[in-house]
Design goal:
The protein is α+β, with helices and mostly antiparallel strands. The protein has 3 helices and 11 strands, in the order αββββββαββββαβ.
Length: about 190
C-alpha cells in the first residue's frame, strides 16, 4: 500500500512539473500602451516581444515549436477574416536558404516575377537590427487579381544557425497601422537566454 501512495505522489509531482513547464513556456502580459508582452520558446530558445493586444492566437500556435500565427481580432475584423496577420517562422538554412539575406533576395525576386510591375510596388529593402543582430527587411504592396491592395513586410535574421522570420500581411486601409505595429514588434524583440 505504501508503494502505491508513493507512486501517486511521484506521479502528481511529475504532472505538476509538466503543467508548470507548459505554462512557463508561453506567457502574455498587458502593457499600458495597448500592447501585450509575449514570452515563448521555439527550438529551445526563449524570447519575448510586444504585439498589439488585439492580436490573437486562436489555434494556440505560440505553443508550436517552430512557428506561430496571430490575427488581429477587433471591431472591424475577425479571426477568420483578419485585416492583419503576423507570421513567425524558423527556417533551417540547410533545407531552405543559406542565410537570411538569400531568403529575402529570393522572396523579392519571386514576388517581382509573380506580379506585373503595375501590381507590385517595392516600398523598402534595407538592413535592420533585431535584438542587436543584423538582419534584412523588405516591404512591398501588391494588388491581387481581385483588386484588393495588400501590404507585406518581412524581417529575417540569422541566429544560432537558423533563419528567424517575422512577416506581416495587412489590407491596404490598415497598412500604416500594420507598419507601426510591426516596427514595434521588431524593436521590442529580445532573446532571453
Amino acid at each position: 500500500m505504501r508503494k502505491y501512495k508513493g507512486f501517486r505522489s511521484v506521479t502528481a509531482i511529475v504532472i505538476i512539473i509538466i503543467l508548470m513547464t507548459t505554462l512557463l513556456s508561453i506567457s502574455c502580459g498587458s502593457i499600458d500602451n495597448g500592447y501585450k508582452k509575449i514570452i515563448t520558446t521555439k527550438v529551445g530558445i526563449r524570447f519575448s516581444f510586444e504585439c498589439p493586444s488585439s492580436y490573437q492566437d486562436k489555434n494556440d500556435t505560440l505553443r508550436l515549436n517552430g512557428s506561430f500565427l496571430l490575427n488581429r481580432v477587433s471591431d472591424n475584423s475577425t479571426w477568420d477574416n483578419p485585416d492583419t496577420t503576423l507570421y513567425f517562422f524558423i527556417y533551417n538554412p540547410e533545407t531552405y536558404f543559406p542565410d537570411a539575406k538569400s531568403k529575402i533576395d529570393e522572396l523579392l525576386k519571386t514576388e517581382e516575377i509573380s506580379y506585373p510591375s503595375a501590381n507590385f510596388k517595392l516600398l523598402e529593402r534595407s538592413n535592420i537590427n533585431v535584438a542587436g543582430i543584423k538582419g534584412e527587411s523588405l516591404s512591398y504592396s501588391v494588388v491581387y487579381r481581385v483588386g484588393v491592395p495588400r501590404y507585406f513586410s518581412y524581417v529575417y535574421f540569422d541566429y544560432k544557425w537558423l533563419i528567424w522570420a517575422f512577416e506581416i500581411e495587412a489590407l491596404d486601409p490598415v497598412s500604416v497601422q500594420a507598419k507601426t505595429e510591426f516596427d514595434h514588434i521588431i524593436k521590442s524583440f529580445k532573446f532571453l537566454d
